[in-house]
Design a protein that fits this description.
Largest sheet: 8 strands, mixed
Number of strands: 8
Structural class: alpha+beta
Radius of gyration: 15 Å
Helix content: 10-25%
Order of helices and strands: EHEEEHEHEEE
Shape: globular
Length: 137
C-alpha cells in the first residue's frame, strides 16, 4: 500500500463573494472557530480557515476578477469549490495518480494557504469534482 494515500479530508473549500459577509454564518450560526485569515497571492484568493472536528472549512474569496475563484463564482455561484485530501508525500501521490491516467491541473506542488504544498486534479478526470492534494509540514 502506498504511503501517500490520503490520510484524511484536510478541508473543504467554499467559494464566497465576501468572507466578511459570510463569516458570521460560520462562526455564529454554525459555531465554528475562526483560526486565521490570509491572502494567497499566487492563487489570487483570500482564505478564512474554520475548524470543524479534525478538518477545516476554507472560505475562498477572489482577490481579483481574473482569480480562479471569481471565474468559479461567475459560472456556478457561491458554494463548494473543492475537497482537499491530506497526504504525507504530495510528489509521490501526484506521480502515482498520473500513472493511473488522471490529468492534473498542477503536475508539481505549488504553495497553498497555511504554508501547505498543494496540487489539484482536473475535474474532468475526477467525475466533475475538483480534488486537491495537500501536504503540510
Amino acid at each position: 500500500m502506498s504511503k501517500s494515500i490520503p490520510k484524511k479530508i484536510d478541508h473543504i473549500g467554499i467559494a464566497v463573494k465576501s468572507i466578511q459577509d459570510s463569516l458570521a454564518f460560520y462562526t455564529e450560526v454554525l459555531q465554528m472557530e475562526l483560526l486565521a485569515i490570509e491572502e494567497v497571492n499566487s492563487q489570487k484568493v483570500k482564505v478564512a480557515f474554520l475548524q470543524v472536528g479534525e478538518s477545516k472549512i476554507e472560505l475562498l474569496e477572489p482577490l481579483s476578477e481574473d482569480s480562479p475563484i471569481a471565474t468559479f463564482i461567475k459560472k456556478r455561484g457561491e458554494g463548494i469549490h473543492h475537497v482537499a485530501f491530506g497526504v504525507s508525500s504530495i510528489e509521490d501521490r501526484i506521480q502515482e495518480i498520473k500513472i493511473k491516467g488522471v490529468v492534473m491541473i498542477h503536475n508539481e506542488p505549488v504553495p497553498g494557504a497555511g504554508g501547505a504544498q498543494v496540487a489539484f486534479l482536473h475535474p474532468k478526470s475526477a467525475h466533475g469534482v475538483l480534488y486537491e492534494f495537500c501536504e503540510k509540514k
